[in-house]
Amino acid sequence: MHCSSKNYNFAKGDNMSNEMNNKQQEVKEKMQQQKYQSKVDNVTPKPPLLKNICWAFVVGGLICTLGQLVTDYFSGLGLPKKEASACATAVLVFLGAFFTGIGVYDDLGKRAGAGSIVPITGFANSIVAPAMEFKREGYVFGIGAKMFVIAGPVLVYGMVTAFIIGLIYWIRQ
Amino acid sequence: MNKKQGMQSVVFTNPPIITSTANIVGPMEGKGLLQGYFDYIMPDNLNGLASWEQCESYLMEYAIKKAIEKENSTMEEVDCVFAGDLLNQLMSTHFAMKNLKRPFLGLYGACSTMVEGMLLSAILLDGGFFNKIVAAASSHHDAAERQYRFPSEMGVQRPPVAQWTVTGSGAVVVSTLGSGPRITTGTIGKIVDYGIKDPNAMGPAMAPAAVDTIWQHFQDIGRTPAYYDMIFTGDLGSVGRDLVIQLLQEKGVDISTNYQDCGCMVYKENQDAHAGASGCASSAIVLCGYIYKRLLQDKLKKILFLGTGSLHSTTSYQQKESIPCIAHAVSIEMP
């Protein structure tokens, strides 16, 4: 809340009644806001949930299937499972970055939503997109500083989670 | 003599005249509903320049120069320019003004900037300070997106309530002499905040501010909605427009027959702009093209024109503050 609703008391002798008034004012404002929010909810168009879910399922599924195909290909070449999946990850990250670069991935994301954000290609998109966007601010303060604006939190909390899981694993041993 | 009337309004004794307007838009707006009402449609959102911000400066410079050119006068005759845009520290406005070399006052009223500028112009002209003032506003879709939301190549899904920032600019020349529609009254808005926090829902956030100013305008000036051929708001979009009609109906004022929002007049349904247009240029390009032409053709005689601004910043919404909003109004009438 802003200072206006706290209404700092300038008139010293009148603190009690001022506080009462402020409380009433605050309650009134809250009620007005809630009433308005419900009005807004009534007229706001709902996102086409079913359509969005179907798009996300199909696109997300296709990306994962592609990942599996690439993994199988590398396994077929005789790579062990762990290395085959690491190679597949690299391929998918490249594809995500490539399609961001040629301006296709955002059109896909507009329709597929989570379907194209959740797979690793979405992660590549979230790094390449700001890198492209901030190139005009130079290689240091532009690309260097802004590249991880969106992916940064994922890395931070990913590492924190990995640390905690590692700690639990270590204690249990 | 005091020209203030009521709580927040002014009535001009020598109504200043809008002698010329000009606008310029990007390719998407050029393919929209108002084709044929633009002075120039850019082939793309960069127009051969190095950055979107530079392109926005170009937009504003073009609009101001074109408006002066259409009026057959020179830049030297312009006493003062009021202008603003959406970017931090009014970046694009300042670089446009650097080239124009005219006395200049920068304004930030978010998407209400156009009307804010016209209101101040009219006050200074009627006050006898100046003879010719230009008011201008601009916005650029990609420059605004990168500042307020996501990089343009990010694959994000926009909710249906979201609006599309207009790439474009509009400029209005207001003079004490000449012919054209006149700015007869103005109502200065106050900040209204109904607690909306979602920066995607700017239409719903701004609707109460628009209602507050419309209501106050009628109270102060003593008019009813029927006085006007049309009432226009700047960029509330379809959701905000419905809310304005509903909120005014609750106050016993019916504007459902002669009210439209400029944000609903820019893009076609199939252009994927969702709830409509937004940005400083939303109201500016519609006023400086379509509405001004309709006024000159006498198809519209009396209009009330509102600029609506949502005054949040990226810092304010990350700190979970609600969106403070404002709306200013001018009434424009043919003599």
Secondary structure: elements and pairs:
The complex is a heterodimer of chains A (173) and B (335).
Chain A: H1 3-6, H2 15-43, H3 49-76, H4 81-101, H5 105-112, H6 114-117, H7 120-133, H8 139-146, H9 152-172
Chain B: E1 4-5, E2 9-11, E3 17-25, H1 27-30, E4 40-41, H2 52-70, E5 80-84, H3 91-100, E6 104-106, H4 113-126, E7 132-139, H5 141-148, E8 164-165, E9 168-175, E10 182-187, H6 202-221, E11 230-233, H7 237-250, E12 259-261, E13 277-278, H8 280-296, E14 302-310, H9 314-318, E15 325-333
Parallel strand pairs in B: 3-4, 5-6, 5-7, 8-13, 11-12, 11-14
Antiparallel strand pairs in B: 1-2, 2-10, 3-9, 7-9, 10-15, 14-15
Features:
heterodimer; A: about 170 residues; mainly alpha; disordered N terminus; B: alpha/beta; Peroxisomal Thiolase, Chain A, domain 1; seven-stranded mixed beta sheet; six-stranded mixed beta sheet; 9 helices
Describe the protein in words.
The complex is a heterodimer of chains A (173) and B (335). Chain A has 173 residues and is an all-alpha fold. Chain A has helices at 3-6, 15-43, 49-76, 81-101, 105-112, 114-117, 120-133, 139-146, 152-172. Chain A has 2 domains: 3-43, no CATH class; 49-172, no CATH class. Chain A has 9 helices and no strands. The model of chain B has no long low-confidence stretch (mean pLDDT 95). Chain B has 335 residues and is of the alpha/beta class. Chain B has helices at 27-30, 52-70, 91-100, 113-126, 141-148, 202-221, 237-250, 280-296, 314-318, and strands at residues 4-5, 9-11, 17-25, 40-41, 80-84, 104-106, 132-139, 164-165, 168-175, 182-187, 230-233, 259-261, 277-278, 302-310, 325-333. In chain B, helix 2 packs across helix 3 (91-100) and helix 6 (202-221) packs across helix 7. The longest helix of chain B is centred in the middle third of the chain and has 20 residues, at 202-221. Chain B contains 9 helices and 15 strands. The chains are: A mainly alpha (173), B alpha/beta (335). At the A-B interface, helix 2, helix 5 and helix 7 of A face helix 7 of B.
